[in-house]
Amino acid sequence: MALSKEHRLKRRQDFQDVYKSGRRRSSSSLTLRALRQRQSPANTKEVKLRNSPKNKPATRFGISISQKVSKKAVVRNRIKRQLRAAIRHLLPNISPGWLVVVVVHPQANQCDYGQFLRELEQLLVEAEVINGHSRGSLL
Question: Which residues contact 109 (CB under 8 A, 6 or more apart)?
Fold first, then answer.
């Protein structure tokens, strides 16, 4: 089961923005990059349509997994499914208005769902996406 459309990070420019100026936190099998979204006047119509609190855009996630993790697409897809399930599990606790990219390391080959869930939750807390906000102005 995939993430809902409003929670997917798809555009190349969004990924590049997160890589360029996002916060980076790492664990043994994952690296998380998170960037607070800026609300632009062009997005006001899109923002109003969402059901997120205070008209903030929904937090969107992208997963980056290379062939260095595994040459087999079956293995890479399994890891992506487990990560998406962990994100869905944590979604109610996540603050709105973030762009998040999860980069998978080759050590993730030996991880199970429980370990992904623990590591992802810890990284989101460290990046202040869960239970915290950035120190700067919100938008």
Answer: 69, 70, 75, 79
Paired with 94 in beta bridges are 130
SS3 content of the chain, % helix, strand, coil (to 5): 45, 20, 35
pTM of the model: 0.81
H helices within 22-129, ranges in order?
44-49, 73-90, 113-126
Domain boundaries along the sequence of the chain: 5-126
Which residue, chain included where needed, has tokens 């890479």? 76
pLDDT tens, residue by residue, 26-83: 999 999 999 998 765 454 444 444 444 567 899 999 999 999 999 999 999 999 999 9
Class of the CATH-defined domain 5-126: alpha beta
The kind and range of the H/E element at 68 are none
Closest of 7, 23, 33 to residue 92, by C-alpha: 7
Which one, of 103, 111, 13, lies nearest residue 65 by Cα? 103
Q: Classify residue 30 by its DSSP letter.
A: E
